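The authors assume throughout that readers already know how a fold can be written as discrete tokens. The format is easy to grasp once an entry is in front of the reader. For illustration, here is how one protein appears when written out as sequence plus structure tokens:
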Amino acid sequence: MQLRMFGRTGMQLSVLGFGCGAVGGLMVRGDAADQERTIARAIDVGVNYFDTAVLYGNGESETNLGRVLHRLKPAGVVVATKVRVPPEKFGRIADAVTNSLEGSLARLRLDRVDILHLHNPITEAGGGPALSVGQVLDDVVPAFDRLRRQGKIGFLGISAVGDTTALHRVIDSRAFDSAQVVYNMLNPSAAGPLPANYPAQDYGRLFDHTAAAGVGVVGIRVLAGGALSGSAERHPIAGAAPEPIGSAVRYDADVDRARRLAPLVEEGFAASLTEAAVRFALSHPAMGTILVGMATPQQFEDALAAVEKGPLPQAALDRLSALRQAFAGEAR
């Protein structure tokens, strides 16, 4: 398994991370034996990054990951979790962050996590579930720093979801060490410009900002919540079709556009759309590690096989860019 340097942290992470989210569902609703077998397999092939959150199954993902890691006792794994501050606790952010982390550590059976990511969207003014830039820098960062000084977290992170300008400001502050960035074949705007009137959020070359700040990148929504399989069908233990992030407004629209990328498979650039999506995400040097949602052990094997083929060749990237041009001008 290839390792990549993760920003300024000094850590080297496996290019394929182990996503424990609710969309795939393995670590939330999966069979306990499948969970242990898949994690053991991942560790055996060199996966060293495990990503979970309180929000995944209301703590079930953390509980299951903690149980398996406690049993396997692997050396050298990196564990990250997340905290989402509910709006009713925006006046007591430090307490909310601390209490959330304490619960996470108990479920994970750990004394510390390597990365704690803020799970709230970030916007200029805040509102609803989103935190404002000021709240993040003035309230969240000091709370995270305090926990780091206490030895309960190693590095500070964000989920880079929200307003583009707000995300740029927070990353440019250099207060955070890690950013979870939306990057997939339907929305590559973290890396470069989109066609005019393209139906997706423009993340404004976010990778330029992470690189300048020394922030490590975790690639999320690599499969656009499953839409880049090209099928609307979902495994029985997978979560319901998720709300798109950064791409279409409706999941079905993402599935439709994914199907229109089928020439990548038909012309021999990849064996499947999911393989193409995984290899696309690895193609950018800013990417530290990518997360692929899984419902079954076989889906992990599929992701592993795609990673082992390496990044897409330039000819495939050029073909993909040409195919995406057809989306310009469509309603998001």
Notes: The domain at 3-327 is CATH 3.20.20.100 (TIM Barrel). The longest strand covers residues 153-159.
